[in-house]
Amino acid sequence: MPATPGLATTRGGHVAVVSPSPDQLTRSVAGFLHRAPLLGGAAVVLATPEHRAAVAHGLQALGLVPARLRRQGALVEIDAALALENFVVEGTVDAERFERFASQVLEPLGRLSGPIHVYGEMVAVLWDAGRVAAAVELEACWNALASRFTFALFCGYPAASLAAAPAAAEEVARLHQGVLVPPELTRSPGPATHVARFAADLAELARARRFVASSLPGIGEEAEAEATLIVTELAANAVVHAGSRFSVRLGIAHRQLWIAVQDGAGLLAPLAPTPGRGLGLVAALAERWGCEQLERGKVVWALLPLTREMPAPAP
Question: In three state form, how does the secondary structure of the chain look?
Answer without folding.
Answer: CCCCCCCCCCCCEEEEEEECCHHHHHHHHHHHHCHHHHCCCEEEEEECHHHHHHHHHHHHHCCCCHHHHHHHCCEEEEEHHHHHCCCEECCEECHHHHHHHHHHHHHHHHHCCCCEEEEECHHHHHHHCCCHHHHHHHHHHHHHHCCCCCCEEEEEEEHHHHHCCHHHHHHHHHCCCEEECCHHHCCCCCCCCEEEEECCCCCHHHHHHHHHHHHCCCCCHHHHHHHHHHHHHHHHHHHHCCCCCEEEEEEEECCEEEEEEEECCCCCHHHCCECCEHHHHHHHHCCEEEEEEECCEEEEEEEEECCCCCCCCCC
